[in-house]
Amino acid sequence: MASPEPVKFLLVDDIDENLRALEALLRRDGLALYKARSGIEALELLLEHDFALALLDVQMPDMDGFELAEMMRGTGRTRRVPIIFVTAAATDEGRRFKGYEAGAVDFIYKPIDPLILKSKADVFFSIARQHEQLALQKDALAKAAAELSGALDRLQAHTDNSPLAIVEFDPDMRLLGWSKGAERMFGWTAPEMIGHPLADLGWMPDSCIADMVALFSASMADTSHQRGHDTVRCRARDGSMLDCEWYSSVLRRPDGTPVSLSVQILDITDRRRAEETQLLLIGELNHRVKNTLASVQAIATQTLRYTRNPDQFSATFSGRIQALARAHGMLSDRTWQGADLMDLVRDQLRLGTIDPARLQASGPRVQLLPQPALRLALILHELATNALKYGAFSRPAGRVVLEWSVEGEQLQLRWQESGGPPVQAPLKRGFGSTLIDSSMKSDGGTATVSFRSDGVVWDLAMKLDGPAAPGAERTGRLAAAPALAPAREAQALDGCRLLVVEDEALVALELIAVLEDAGATVCGPARTVEEALEMIEAESFDAALLDGNLHGKPVDAVAAALTRRGLRFAFVSGYGRENLPAAFAHAPVIGKPFTPHQLVEIAGSLTRREENVVAFPAAAVPR
């Protein structure tokens, strides 16, 4: 702490010996003595210094002590300096009165008694020190007040800008404070709320008020209670109900008696809704996944029942799974809001096994709900597959006309074949016919087949959720879909070394099995980004098949490492193109689930360094 400034006394006398005597008697630590030999010198010193006491000789030439005192009282700077007159002359009452009128606080008579002088000087020295301490305290208080004001301003700003509603109650549950956050959250202003009891505000349901008052009263009565947390439903000014979390704390006096209850309120209405939505989505996802798995199980079982050998089963089962997967991908693109009927028809051309010029499809725009869309996708696949195997598409001149119309809320479809081999009604009903019939009936519809001499005709009817889109255009012959290169022999990958990067065990086994059956040597599988990077640095291979992500991690680093080594690769993913690394848009995408033909064809194109690598359409890739 810095040493205090010295206290200053002014000594005024025209005789040097008197000044030296006063100086000798008054000298002490912390005291600075200034000497003047005339009134003029004294006035000059008074203009430069702040004095705690002035000892003035009464008898001086030119300007006596009384005149100097009167001049001091006439100036604001020196008006409050205490004055003690020092005189050798006997002072009558008149002169004494004149001295006090001039501003004196006391008289000291010559010869000076040292004890009296020191005693009186000590009083003014102590007063000066007290004034100094008071000034320091005043400055400290002013600084503390400024800091407190700044802190209160910051607190008020935080309170006003906080997303929390901050509310304060007195021990009788009368509202003391209502923040800007509370105004924004609930709609009432502070003047409308402050001063009213909780029960009179209409802010909380009546059923909650008694419980809350009892809880708050117990919190205030419990001296060990500091803060609490409760979930409360509150009413907003517009009548809506908000789910809120209340964080309360009791403010107390030093003796423990409660002053008020401060409550910070968090609106968790959106969070509650999000949690409920999340539970609903999880339940819905669980339901859909199990339904999908049950559908796959049924397709596998029924396909096995109606096929004669493993090769036929593999091709038929894979085609049906592909049809189901493409329909799922289409629905995911539309966030499971439904699918357009014409898009389902176009999807049958994605694999390029049907010549679009031989299929004529027309009808109004029809939006199907998710489940009917999935069933109709399988139905269209069965119709196209049967036409390829036994019907119109099995002959070069064969044609198919697919037409639909909407009557009220009923969708009518007709699949009519012509130009195929002679038609005979089958002796035994196959799985395809059974699937079509049962699928239509599950939607409250019907399926009728006619084996005419010029070709098979299917008439399908199903109930729609609503009428067709008004004014929708009818679509005629379909545009050609990108065709795949013709299938190669079984040993299309002889001598090729391929890296497989895949974290799903069953998918990795399928990839390896298909590639090895085609004659390739497989490295891997690498199941993590780190394993993949190590294998890329340590081993030699011709190309790679890369999963879209590995255990939830992006594969950009793996794709970059392959690119640096000049190795081509294809993504094998359930994601669409837009969800894969944008920097590697040149890489083809094999959608999951895939067919052996797709896998071998793209793997072969990678190892052959073909410029135009086949990329299966993103719309056909399930997400």
From TrEMBL:
Q: Which part of the chain is the Response regulatory domain?
A: 8-125, 497-607
Q: Which UniProt keywords apply?
A: ATP-binding, Kinase, Nucleotide-binding, Phosphoprotein, Transferase
The catalysed reaction is: ATP + protein L-histidine = ADP + protein N-phospho-L-histidine
Please state every residue range assigned to the domain named PAS: 151-195
Q: Does the keyword ATP-binding apply?
A: yes
**EC class:** transferase
- Looking at the record's lineage, which domain of life comes first? Bacteria
EC number(s) from the headed UniProt entry: 2.7.13.3
Q: Which sequence positions carry the modification called 4-aspartylphosphate? A: D57, D547
Mind telling me which InterPro entries this protein's record contains?
A: CheY-like_superfamily (IPR011006), HATPase_C_sf (IPR036890), PAC (IPR001610), PAS (IPR000014), PAS-like_dom_sf (IPR035965), PAS_4 (IPR013656), Sig_transdc_His_kinase_HWE (IPR011102), Sig_transdc_resp-reg_receiver (IPR001789)
Q: Which PANTHER family is this protein grouped with?
A: ETHYLENE RESPONSE SENSOR PROTEIN, TWO-COMPONENT SYSTEM SENSOR PROTEIN
Protein's recorded name = Blue-light-activated histidine kinase
Record organism: Ancylobacter vacuolatus
